[in-house]
Amino acid sequence: MPHILIVDDDATMRDALAEVVVDLGHTACLAADGLSALALLDTEPVSAMFLDLRMPGIDGLEVLRRLRARPKAPAVTVLTAHATASNTIEAMRLGAFDHLTKPIGRADLAQVLQRMLSSVAEPGASFPAEEAEAIIGSSEAMRTVQKTIGVLADSDATVLITGETGTGKEVVARAIHEHGLRHDRPFVAVNCAAIPVDLLESELFGHARGAFTGATADRDGAFRQAAHGTLFLDEIGDMDMAMQAKILRALQERVVVPVGGKPVPVDVRVIAATHRDLQRSVREGSFREDLFYRLHVVPIHLPPLSARIADIVPLAEYFLTRVAAGKRLSADAAALLIRFAWPGNVRELKNAMERAAVMVRGEYIHATDLAFLQDARSPQDSALEFDWPDEDLPSALARLEEMLIRRALRDSGNNRTDAARRLNVNRQLLYAKLKRYGIDVADSGRDTEAG
């Protein structure tokens, strides 16, 4: 019978998780802190482990780091009520099997436990303790991206990042570099669409002195400038066929030929990105099939911002903080941002926040300050339409909060556990909010949350 170790300083959470584990036919071992868990691993044959992130003493990531230094370690799923890009990436980088946000449903718990027991956990490696968080977002799509970054960061696998213009492809590429083993080496970005065709070869591969008119000195080129680091080829889908053949050779042989020079070996990780559908381009004959498969080793797709509703306000606040510390969004401004279509994606949101921060003198940015967005406004859901009266900020925030709760309940079929997950809050807080706003909910389905 598999032994499942549950590590959490919250006794209620420990007991709830243990109950589910036992119901599933396993033996539950409990630890209230990281040091107790490590000691218990010396005496119990643990097959899988649920590990809380925030605990007194040594936190979950430090436990994971020490655990992965052992010769043999169980599969570990990290649990947290406060998921960020940084702790998600770090947990996955250190070898975590998965990274889940509380509250955790019984079905989700059973599924991840089954997957852990059928896997073989491998030791991880060290990871920088402090990293600047560049990826903002707690939506399911972005958490999937964060987990993928953590898993592939230390490898040299070629990555192809796809997504609409402005979704943050270079941000993801830099995160892969910064969280990987090459983080202390160069990161060189080249926009293949912005460089004239006749200059791109020299830009990428370099040239020898005298190779052409104006070549008064040797030039390394981007491949050699990124030696032992990462080369980011942005908009590679816009590259012409002749250059595609040369890129393919460089990727296959790890050798570049400077214009007018001799072959030079290179050690560089390549990350490519494009807003185009490369598979369609292959079918149409405008992109080499062999190059596509050489690039498509690990694909990462970034969804449009309109599909990441939960990330819009956190991103806006992040951009405001970077431009003008102290600026805040009012409730009506946040509502406007949520219902706007964002055809320019994250880049458009960033530019809008920078503009508002410069033009608004007061502390709060209101919907009227974002009137420049209205011309392109595209409502996504009639339920998000507001008729904001002249009221103070606490009242407006309460109205927005109640609306979001009612929408989450509607979308979840009045299942409070699912609604809490959609809102990214714990179930107990949701219950308190339901009572505060007088929302009487008869669950259409039985609450199945474990904790």
Automatic annotation (TrEMBL):
Source organism superkingdom: Bacteria
A Pfam family matched in the record: Response_reg
Protein name: Two-component system NtrC family response regulator
Signal peptide per UniProt: none
Species whose genome carries this gene: Paraburkholderia bryophila
Gene Ontology biological process terms in this record: phosphorelay signal transduction system; regulation of DNA-templated transcription
Domain Sigma-54 factor interaction: 135-358
PTM-bearing positions, type 4-aspartylphosphate: D52
Keyword ATP-binding: yes
Keyword Transcription recorded: yes
MF terms (GO), sorted A to Z: ATP binding; sequence-specific DNA binding
Residues covered by the Response regulatory domain: 3-117
Coiled coil (UniProt feature): none
Keywords per UniProt: ATP-binding, Nucleotide-binding, Phosphoprotein, Transcription, Transcription regulation
InterPro entries, per database record: AAA+_ATPase, AAA_lid_NorR, CheY-like_superfamily, Homeodomain-like_sf, HTH_Fis, P-loop_NTPase, Sig_transdc_resp-reg_receiver, Sigma_54_int
